[in-house]
Specification:
This protein is α+β, with helices and mostly antiparallel strands and 241 residues long. The chain has six helices and twelve strands.
Length: 241
């Protein structure tokens, strides 16, 4: 009886451990026109997924030439837009002008195995990081410290995107009321959502961090320029009603 109870407990506990479907997906570019790129469709990526294009010069030398975003799926194909890769830009190094070509390697869901959670309190942060344990979670203190130094109590989409680039991750998780949203750092499109437990703890603004407060430059003169309502602020940022 005890062994049966133990087995049931293990199965029940394991079922709580949610697994994401954000593994890197690699394929080849099959068509190029003046504005768009085309690859074969797959359930392994979503509209809004971002990634990179790898161009091979020979068997030993290759480089990232562009970043991509999936904007549409139709007729068993996925349509992508692209722009020049700037992630490793160095003023001391010469620039290049290599355009995507048929046969180049596309890697979608790039850097999705690391993510940062934007949540209202410590309870939700623990719930998210425990349940989605196949992701390496970056603590929001890192972003909070940057916002504090820059006197930015109300982060913008650009602030989030810059943080993703500087710390080599491409996935954000926003907890809004009782819903959680996985969002691509580059496209800022929602890739997936999940239910979250309800808590009575008042939301911390701009998000949960162990920093006591993030002040704006005009804080002492005008009484602050931060976020008044956590849920409304991020609902608007994600374009949710």
């Amino acid at each position: 009886m005890l062994r049966l109870f133990t087995l049931i407990f293990i199965i029940s506990f394991t079922s709580l451990m949610a697994k994401t479907n954000f593994s890197p997906f690699q394929t080849s570019l099959v068509k190029v026109d003046k504005k768009y790129l085309y690859i074969k469709d797959s359930p392994s990526f979503s509209v809004g997924s971002s990634g990179i294009i790898m161009h091979s010069f020979d068997k030993s030398h290759k480089t990232i030439v562009a970043t991509v975003e999936v904007i549409e799926k139709k007729d068993n194909q996925a349509v992508l837009i692209y722009k020049k890769f700037e992630g490793l830009k160095q003023s001391a190094l010469p620039s290049y002008n290599i355009t995507p070509k048929i046969g180049d390697t596309i890697i979608l869901n790039h850097l999705y195995k690391r993510a940062m959670a934007i949540v209202p309190n410590a309870e939700i942060l623990k719930h998210v990081t425990t349940n989605f344990n196949d992701i390496e979670w970056i603590h929001p203190d890192i972003f909070g410290s940057k916002l504090s130094i820059d006197y930015t109590p109300a982060p913008t989409k650009e602030d989030f995107t810059n943080e993703c680039t500087q710390n080599s991750f491409a996935l954000l998780f926003f907890a809004i009321e009782n819903k959680g949203y996985f969002v691509d750092c580059n496209s800022f499109k929602i890739l997936a959502q999940t239910n979250l437990p309800q808590t009575d703890t008042k939301p911390q603004v701009p998000f949960y961090t162990r920093l006591k407060e993030i002040k704006g430059r005009m804080f002492n003169l005008m009484g602050g320029d931060g976020i008044n309502d956590y849920n409304k602020f991020y609902t608007k940022m994600l374009g949710q009603k």
